[in-house]
């Protein structure tokens, strides 16, 4: 017998031995030629021998791709909506001790640039190409059917995730993904442009521009998941994603401690809604009572004192759109200050959580060989809270304002799960000190200049050093490639690649006076545009972020000119003094715009939201959903807004299993829900919390099969108008209510679901998710234009 000599043979021991031998054989690897012309690599040639039996054959394990010897771990950290002058690390008033500590161990960069808005910046960081080249001229929700604006990252601009993965480096993405087309973010996909198809082995986060931090719309890889705790139990997404990131990193290093990893860690912070506990908010009580005008002056002076900006820099002129702090009444000052105290608390909390990640990185067995690139914001501070700020951001984005008095009634709740706060524009301008303008305004550095801190103990020895080379988000990928010893191939997945637009700034790691790598760079978002060339900037501010219906028209454009070699903060407009230089730069902008696919310019704001887009719904007017259809984004759900519609649910229940949600869309900020409570079918319409309409059936739901129907007859005559809701039980009218107005744009950042109310509940009349206890055979929705 084969095992006759193994007198003490134990099957389990043999299997373990066999597995260990197999593992040893599989870990053979090669230092892959990084100059390859394509990725992924071809299957390696078999160099063994195949005989008729194993006795006459020779094994040869395939050599799998592996990174070059000595390649570092790479961690890219990217915050959201942070002004240049917010953090203590760069002269701001919000303490960020963990960012401070990282900067003391590495380098601070004070001339790093983004695109001035989130999705486009992220596309540039991920691909190394300009945002228009990678289809992200603007945000997914505003996509149009032009290659530069469809937000469909083309295969010709492969991501850094793909390059790392195909070279044997494990990859993960945590937090925000705003680079999947809006209409592809449901659990139905397609998944070609999700993180897991863009080169990332693991994804844990959300697929939109923002999410509720207490009730996030979460996906793990491509599967919707729910938080394991409630807000009352201490849940916050920032903590959750940090835990996941640390655990993933530890697992990788537990199994293969010498194998480098690549992590993209992109929190929702500091994007609205600014969610944090009251304890963190109250740490800043009274810290900003001096107001935003004084805050600019304080920050500017501190930045000079710290050497963040040159000694000869001037503070850019205050923006005439921002009210003088001293012109405000006491209620305004109280509310506006409270919103910024809340933001500061959120930022301090975020720094605390990022600090946990940084400490975990410091505990890695190869911490010395770990490159951390911490980009403090994907654009400047946001003015999207408008002139007055808000406690219900989605309401404000729908163009509906609340009074200061209404907002102050909720002062104690600000930052909590029942609010969606955003500060007013004055704080955004202060947060971008010393530069003019804000997020979305790509023409000026207030929109596009973001701090960056880089550490790599093995290579960077100038601890606490400052670097002032002019850099852009597109320069991140080529820098990572040089650091890891990899190159950009000509083909990825069989698709010819567009050349990398960025340039490596690796040279600055060891030389403070390294030569400038970038002498020309264009900027464009919503027709706000600029061109940097050889120390000069030509700039045209076109649209207002808080008033997207205001644009001057292309025939009335006014351009400005700055010599930023002498004028660090764009404080002195030289357009009248040097008109020929201005025309020269405008011509260069046109040249770069054509080269990098910027055209056609489009200054439409909210109007672009209604541009026809691809949809998993097609042009259907009738839909049928079944149990389990949950976490469907609003853009992939039937659009019941601004029209008449009917929903009918076929239910099967018994005396003990009747209650729960039948269908819900939206959350506490705004939404609707059809549910059963104490046996009574109920429909509730939440118009931004200010007007909540409830229709409770006059009869209980009977046992067995039953039909519950809600019919809405729209008043018509425009958008956001009112109408009549009628509730039916087995086709018998059991209630009705007239509403004066309806949501015209979007219900918010939550989702559509059958059989439960996931995430932020539409109402507090029940505890989410309030799953339906009976059986839902189907829910049919019919739209009547």
UniProtKB/TrEMBL annotation:
InterPro entries (alphabetical): Alkaline_phosphatase_core_sf (IPR017850), ConA-like_dom_sf (IPR013320), Sulfatase (IPR050738), Sulfatase_CS (IPR024607), Sulfatase_N (IPR000917)
Note the Pfam families from the entry. Answer: Sulfatase
Highest rank taxon of the organism: Bacteria
Gene3D superfamilies, per database record: 2.60.120.200, 3.30.1120.10, Alkaline Phosphatase, subunit A
Species source reads: Roseivirga pacifica
Q: Name one GO biological process term.
A: carbohydrate metabolic process
Q: What is this protein called?
A: Arylsulfatase
Q: Where is the Sulfatase N-terminal domain?
A: 72-485
Q: Please report which protein family the annotation says this sequence is part of.
A: Belongs to the sulfatase family.
Q: Which key words tag this protein in UniProt? A: Calcium, Hydrolase, Metal-binding, Signal
Molecular function terms from GO:
hydrolase activity, hydrolyzing O-glycosyl compounds; metal ion binding
Where does the record locate the signal sequence feature?
1-29
